[in-house]
Write a structure and sequence with these properties.
- This protein is an alpha+beta fold and about 200 residues long.
- About 20% of the residues lie in helices and about 40% in strands.
- The chain is built from 5 helices and 9 strands, in the order αββββαββαααβββ.
- Strands 1, 2, 3, 4, 5, 6, 7, 8 and 9 form a 9-stranded antiparallel beta sheet that branches.
- The longest helix has 19 residues.
- It binds flavin mononucleotide.
- The site of flavin mononucleotide (FMN) has 14 residues, from β2, β4 and α2.
């Protein structure tokens, strides 16, 4: 990899790692898309983990969400990140793995606050039709967090969506000239080429 590509590769890695814990980094939120019966479905999610060497990025979700069954049927994903301050767009694509009730989810669940765990205790299946507006957290926990024992049943619904990417499309906008390149990952080999912006 030449020096220009190496700099971009390192910049992607640094920004993505920073965005996991830095809520102010615009890459903390991203849009993930999948395809179900040839219809594209997109939604905003939170970046929870990233490794460029393992080629993974992760978000958390509820196993009862329609996207999980859709992704089980067709695991292809695209993910879109944009930083309007730096004018950098990243697009990742590949296939997902749904992690549920395994060692990784157990470890991650331990680090989730009681307040956030409420999201996995919803009485309704996410995205299902309901008779009246409801936040889909148990009424008794709307204005006060559950204790740790009360959160444990949420683990049954908690999944990590591990997006294994095989491609990153990088675009940087500048008045003096945009630049764009694509990294392709095959096993441990990374190839990269410039693309017309
Ligand atoms: C700022 C923001 C962050 C969100 N983060 C997540 C997330 O990390 N995981 C998730 O499943 N849904 C998240 N959502 C909700 C999704 O965008 C979406 O509405 C929900 O998951 C239902 O999607 P589905 O019907 O395609 O399954 C977030 C929404 C917003 C606005």
């Amino acid at each position: 990899m030449n020096k220009n590509f190496k700099n971009i590769y390192n910049l992607i890695n640094d920004e993505m790692i920073n965005a996991i814990s830095n809520h102010k980094n615009p890459f903390h939120l991203f849009v993930v898309g999948n395809s179900s019966e040839n219809i594209p479905n997109i939604r905003t999610v939170v970046l929870r983990n990233f490794s460029i060497s393992k080629q993974i990025l992760e978000f958390h979700s509820d196993i009862r969400s329609p996207k999980i069954s859709e992704l089980n049927t067709n695991p292809n994903f695209s993910a879109l990140f944009y930083n309007p301050d730096k004018k950098v767009q990243l697009r990742f694509s590949g296939t997902v793995q749904i992690l549920h009730k395994d060692a990784s989810t157990k470890k991650r669940w331990k680090g989730i606050s009681n307040s956030s765990r409420r999201c996995y205790l919803g009485p309704y299946n996410p995205s299902s039709v309901i008779n009246e507006n409801h936040p889909n957290i148990p009424d008794k926990f709307r204005f006060g967090d559950p204790n740790i024992e009360e959160t444990e049943e949420g683990f049954e619904n908690f999944v990590i969506v591990r997006c294994q990417f095989s491609c990153i499309d990088y675009l940087s906008l500048k008045y003096s000239g945009h630049s764009r390149c694509r990294f392709d990952f095959k096993g441990k080999n990374v190839s990269v080429c410039w693309l017309a912006p």
